[in-house]
Design a protein that fits this description.
Layout: E1 3-6, E2 9-12, H1 23-27, E3 30-38, E4 41-42, H2 45-59, H3 67-80, E5 86-93, E6 111-118, H4 125-129, E7 131-137, H5 152-163, E8 168-173, E9 176-180, E10 184-188, E11 193-196, H6 207-218, E12 222-225, H7 230-235, E13 238-243, E14 247-254, E15 257-258, H8 266-282
Parallel strand pairs: 7-8, 7-14, 11-12
Antiparallel strand pairs: 1-2, 1-6, 3-4, 3-5, 5-6, 8-9, 10-11, 10-13, 13-14, 14-15
The structure holds N-(5'-phosphopyridoxyl)-D-alanine.
Length: 284
């Protein structure tokens, strides 16, 4: 049984509780982060905590825990649960309040929950064979830059994609790809340029995205941050996604059309390798 963290205490997972009146439960009034664990260390911890602060500030939730406190909790959970590879999930909800659409002015106590998941991220079968993607309309709310727990649309469409034999979805807004269900989306054009949508409220500002684009620039690869269409994906040499848990994850098919040779692309695999090495070296 896992040890989890809830509001100041480490507890066995079956003894950790949150109020049924928590606004996270009733209104999805909560934000979260997922930090990768490789070789027992946290990848890009400070990047994730910086984004957590941004999400909290957008929702005006105040959290008294410092970065040092949060690091300590992350590390304790990794150690208590013997995680060498996997993730730490962190969620901060606004906390309990009488159910009302108006958020009470009274200071509520945020609900802080952390738990670990053991997962094989590096030697991953999906990354080896490449993902099959289906496109769907992006019907999420338009503040996708805030990492809230409102994940129902993404979860429903990804489930539907699985039922149809695909691995994930890429969402399309006004004819252009925004991102995957829980990852950022990229293509490599015929002239070897990596293209990914520019940062805006339409996508989550991926921590892995930032690190992978840095790796790409260090490898002297051309990078363009702009929107692209599904037709451009179909004509691309390669495609891939990035996320904390998927790392750099090749895409080989979109809406049943084969991308490039239909196998994980060279550039995607190289970026995966370089990103892994760099993130391990900097992990805390
Ligand atoms: N998801 N876009 C969306 C919608 C996401 O949910 C995520 C992360 C990303 C990639 O962000 P990062 O590189 O910081 O992980 C992009 C996490 C992994 C999840 O929900 O499990």
């Amino acid at each position: 049984m896992r040890t989890v963290y809830v509001n100041g205490d480490f507890r066995p997972e079956n003894e950790a509780t949150i109020s049924i009146f928590d606004r996270g439960f009733l209104f999805a009034d909560a934000v979260y982060e997922v930090t990768t664990v490789l070789e027992g260390k946290l990848v890009d911890f400070y990047g994730h905590m910086a984004r957590l602060r941004k999400s909290l500030s957008e929702l005006q939730i105040s959290l008294s825990l410092s970065e040092a406190n949060l690091l300590d909790i992350h590390r304790k959970l990794v150690s208590k649960n013997n995680i060498t590879e996997g993730l730490v999930y962190l969620q901060v909800s606004r906390g309990p309040a009488d159910r009302d659409f108006v958020i009470s002015e009274d200071a509520e106590t945020p609900g802080v929950v952390l738990f670990t998941q053991e997962k094989k991220l590096v030697d991953n079968a999906l990354a080896q064979r490449g993902q099959k993607i289906l496109t769907v309309e992006d019907q999420r709310w338009r503040r996708c830059d805030i990492k809230t727990v409102q994940l129902l649309y993404s979860s429903l469409v990804k489930t539907e994609a699985h039922r149809k034999g695909a691995d994930d979805v890429w969402m399309v807004l006004d004819g252009e790809v925004t991102e995957g269900s829980s990852n950022n989306a990229y293509i490599l054009t015929e002239d070897n340029t990596i293209v990914t949508r520019a940062l805006s409220n339409d996508i989550l500002h991926g921590i892995t995205r930032q690190a992978v684009l840095q790796c790409a620039r260090e490898l002297q690869l051309k990078v363009e941050e702009r929107s692209f269409t599904v037709d451009e994906v179909k004509a691309a040499k390669e495609a891939f996604s990035t996320s904390a848990t998927g790392l750099v994850n090749p895409v080989v098919e979109i809406d049943s059309d084969v991308i490039g040779k239909g196998t994980p692309g060279e550039v995607a695999l190289r970026l995966r390798e370089v990103y892994l090495k760099a993130s391990l070296a900097a992990a805390v």
